[in-house]
Amino acid sequence: MGSSASKPEQSGYQWKASGTPGVSMPVLDSLQSSPETDASRAKLVEQQIHARVAEELKKLQKR
């Protein structure tokens, strides 16, 4: 009921490594600025798997 949010707004993921990264900074920047999430990647992979399974089933049914 207050005028401020109960949790502070997070501005995104901040890279916090114990040492230097094994990839270049442009790659890290690209990953951090990507709108893609783990959930969206998982959904895409699942769709690709379903498509592949359907394709293989069609091949087997033709035999």
From TrEMBL:
Residues 1-41 are annotated as: Disordered. It comes from the Eukaryota. InterPro entries: DUF1690. Residues 1-13 have a biased composition (Polar residues). This is Uncharacterized protein. It comes from Cordyceps confragosa.
